[in-house]
Sequence to fold (401 residues):
Amino acid sequence: MTTNSTQSPGRQRLTIKKFLIAALITGMGLLVSGLVLTGKPAPVANVPPEPLRPVVSVLYAQPSAISLAVNTQGTVEARRRISLVAEVAGKVATVAGQFEEGAFFDAGDTLLQLEQADYEFAIARAESQVAAAEQRLAEERGRNRQAKREWRELGTVEANALFLRQPQMKAAEAALKAAVADLSAAQLALSRTEIRAPFSGRIESKRVDLGQYIAPGTAVAEIYATDIVDVALPLNDSQLAALKLPMNANVALATPVTLSTDFGGREWQWQAQIKRVQAVVDRQSRTVNAIAEVLQPFDSAASGRPPLTPGMFVRAEIPTPPMPDLVQLPASALRSDNTVLVVGKGDKLDRQSVTVQRRTEQWAWVSGLTLGSRVVRAQTGLLVAGLTVEVSGTAVALGDS
Fold:
């Protein structure tokens, strides 16, 4: 037997072809791998982004002379308030129509009339005593003339006073004066049965009425004058200093005041003047009361204003002398240590101290800022000195809103 150890030509060619394809694929893979490994770009250093700047709104300071108003409040009180008192005793006989609580009256009006019969009887008796005293004086004067004639007939130059009845004549003259005085007292008592108003005013309350018996010294009504009312305005030390009200000088004051109150759903205003300062400091509040006067507080028919009645609560606004170099800032721009943040060169924040002249819930008036200073409107915990900021939104701070 014989064995064929050689392969066929077709199968040999197929084996070579597979080998060449595998070698080609392997070479392409190696080429791609080399390109990937050798073609990687060189690393580039990354620059960190610039941090974001806080955005702030600022005010350009423009100092000027500003008149700041002092705000306070007080209660209206009548300048004159008295108890109208009976000076004689008697039963109330008549009552005037305006003798009612809240009614107005004029000076000299008769408000009450007491019974007059007893006082008319007293006048009649006093007139009788005057006539009798005049008669006795006339008799003594006649006897004095007769005694002088008799003494001259005796031929003596100097006469005895008792003989001439001079003591008796002086006693008669004194008795006449006393009788006339009693008559005047009786007439005065009669006139006092008419209880008249001492000034023009209003009845606050009445204590008696028709038919009631009253004794001397009985208060018949509480009345007050309506020509002037006063308003005591409490002022603390800083307000007194701003107003420059003298405390130790007897000088005339005429500081204008605007009083206002809400009544009937509207706000009404009155013009007044501070005329004096009370002599003592309030021991509880340590304030001093400045007294503002309002003339004719009930004369409001033309304007339609309500009367400025005692007991009414009013607000007061008092202008002060102008203060130089003031800037008005929102209260939010001021720190608790009386400093503000100012945007300086390079938009960096600087802290600057200021002097607070006045402060309210919304505004603060300060001095110490230069012209054109950029003041941050609102303070936050993120804003500190040295921080670079971005300015957005500006306005001018003049000193008044």
About this structure: Residues 117-153 form the longest helix (37 residues). Helices lie at 9-38, 117-153, 166-191, 237-243.
